Amino acid sequence: MLNLILWIVVVFLVSIFAIIPLLYLIYYFLFDMYLYHQVGKKFRQEKEDVKRLIKHTGLIKDEATDWISHIILNNPNKNVSKLAFKIRSEGTEISTDEKISLNLHVNTKLSKKYLAALTDQGKINPLHGAENIARRYQNSKNKFELKKGSG
């Protein structure tokens, strides 16, 4: 009888030590999936907000909002001028003759991809478009952080 009780206790303890790590792994797997979903949901919402901000300027064509929002969200801590530079220098640079025809300095960094993304209104002052988008993004980000901090 004592052997049976001892055997039951041993089996019980072994099963508990086998189940606890398994439950632990299941819990963390589910928790990681939950966090992954929440972060992805937040990122998708931010990307849609940035795309809406870009479209609202009227300086960029709709088909270009995707790559510009990608640059903005992957460089969130850059200041306005660095972010604008990153946007307008994405891709291959335009030729010196094209820069002169746009009344830009020959050392100005401006890509063909960015120039093709500009609307007619944006082409009036190509440097202004990227800076305007970067400034609006920084202002909206700062407003959100101020609201979050005070509320």
Tally of DSSP β-strands: 0
Mean residue pLDDT: 84
- Uncertain ranges: none
Which of globular, elongated, flat, extended, rod-shaped describes the shape?
A: rod-shaped
Oligomeric state of this protein: single chain
Radius of gyration: 27 Å
The fraction of residues in strands falls at under 5%
Distance between the termini: 66 Å
Provide the succession of SSEs: HHHHHHH
Biggest sheet descriptor = none
Helix residue percentage: over 70%
Structural class: mainly alpha
Total helical elements: 7
Q: How would you summarize the topology of this molecule?
A:
Layout: H1 2-57, H2 65-74, H3 80-88, H4 96-101, H5 112-117, H6 120-123, H7 126-150
Helix pairs in contact: 1-2, 1-7, 3-7
